[in-house]
Amino acid sequence: MVFSTGAEVARGQIEDTNTPAIAQQLSAAGYKVTQGETLKDDRFFIAAKLREAAEYGGYALIVTTGGVGAEDKDHTVEAVKDLDSEAATPYICHFKIGTGRHVKDGIKIAVARSNDTLMVALPGPNDEVMASLSILVEGLKAGLDKHLLAENLAANLREILREKTTHRHL
Q: Please, which residues have CB within 8 angstroms of residue 150's CB and are 6 or more apart in sequence?
C-alpha cells in the first residue's frame, strides 16, 4: 500500500506524482500495489491509518511519501515510531532548531516493522522518491533488515541533498 501525506497534496495544490511512480516500480518488481488515501499531517491519524493497513489490510509493505521533514507539520517519522519504537530512523541532514521553519534537528526517513508489515517513510520531493525506488526494490529483494535498508536509502538521499546544495551555491 502506498500513502502520500500532506495538506498540499490533499487540497490538490501539489499533484501526487509519487504514488503512481512507486506503484509502477513496485508492480514491475512483482508486487500488487494498492493506493491509499492522502493522509493529513497529523501524527495520530497517520499512525492509525498505518496500523489499520498493517493489522487488517494484510499488506507486506507500506510506503509513505512526505512528512519526514523538520517543520512542525511533519509527523510521519514519529507516527511510524509509534508503531515500532525500534524503527530505523537515520538522518538525511541536520539543522539547528529554530533556523527558518525548522522545529526539529533534521530530516529523517523511517523503516519499521509492525506485525508482518514493513513500513518505509520516504521524503516528499519526487526526485528523492524516484532516486529511492531502485534501492528500495533491491533491498526488498535482498531481504535486508530495516536498519540496513534505512541506511542504504538515507545514504543515497544524503548524496542527492549534497548535490542539490552544491549546485545551489554555485
A: 88, 89, 90, 109, 110, 111
- Domains of the chain by residue range: 2-168
Instruction: Write the pLDDT tens digit of every residue in 53-97.
Output: 999 999 999 999 999 988 889 999 999 999 999 999 999 999 888
The torsion angles phi and psi of 62, rounded to 5 degrees, stand at -125, 130
Runs of H (alpha helix) within 3-145: 7-10, 18-28, 43-56, 76-83, 126-142
Q: Which amino acid is at 105?
A: D
Superfamily of domain 2-168, CATH level 4? MoaB/Mog-like domain (3.40.980.10)
Helix (H) or strand (E) holding 153: helix 146-168
